[in-house]
Design goal:
- The protein has 15 helices and no strands.
- It has helices at 2-46, 58-81, 86-91, 103-112, 117-149, 155-167, 174-184, 191-197, 201-214, 217-225, 230-241, 243-258, 262-267, 276-284, 296-323.
Amino acid sequence: MSAAASTRLTDAELKAQEKAARKAEKERQKRIAADEAAERRRSARAGFANVNNPRRSTLMTALCAIFAVYCLFPFVYLVINATKTQADFTSTFGLGFGKSFALWDNIVTVFTYQGGIFGRWLVNTLLYVVVGAGGATLLAIMGGYALAKFRFPGRKAVFAVIIGSISVPGIALAVPQFLLFAKLGLTNTPWAMIIPSLISPFGLYLMWIFSEQAVPTELLEAARVDGASEFRTFWTISLPLLAPGIVTTALFTIVATWNNYFLPLIMLKDADWYPLTIGLNQWKDQASTAGGQAIQNLVITGSLITIIPLVIAFLCLQKYWQSGLAAGAVKE
């Protein structure tokens, strides 16, 4: 009799313990929910969202959508109007298609108009970009790496000169550059575009800062202990680590050279050496000259062709940016 009572008492105790455990779990879940709500409120006040407790912001979504429309609007305008004939361009709404789809005809006319001068302008621009921007990127990489990883007298003075040169607008140097190149007899030649493009103070500063963080000094010391020369260490060890910074610097210099307008405007007089920026502007102003023919449809189509290489470059090189986003984020 007493054994059965003892068994029943044990079962009751177990049920009571299970009930207490379920109650404690519910209370714990309530505390977790309260803590998450409090964290969500703190994140909202601080202006950021917890990655483990994300929330959506309708306002930020709307602002991003407006900004995307603002950025894409010129490109959409180019695409739409590149499909129009000259008559449709002047008689239809700017964001509406014309009566006929003339994109291919416009492209063919762009490359055949005035004896195919547009192709010559495109080759000139590629020449200035490959030699000028490519050389500027290489010099920025080597100079930035040397300033970051070597100690030498006058290093602070070099830093001051670089910062000072960044603060000087390029247009302020245009006239002195023109006078200097005129004395050397280099105006109206490709060198008048290439030599100034070889200097990129911002690219040098960018590679200096990036090399300081991306290339561990211990890795260089280990390579030197193994007998590697400085040149081999730079090309085989440091250069792959600098890929995101190199791509960023290259794109900055490429875009600056590709879109350069004022320098070739004052340096070049021969249309055979014009880049695309000056050539398309000459076509745009053609209608304002005596007996000139309006060819806005060709200008729009040429502008669309001009930006396609830059778009392709950005899309192809963005993976290098993504690979360097977390560089230096984790302390080892």
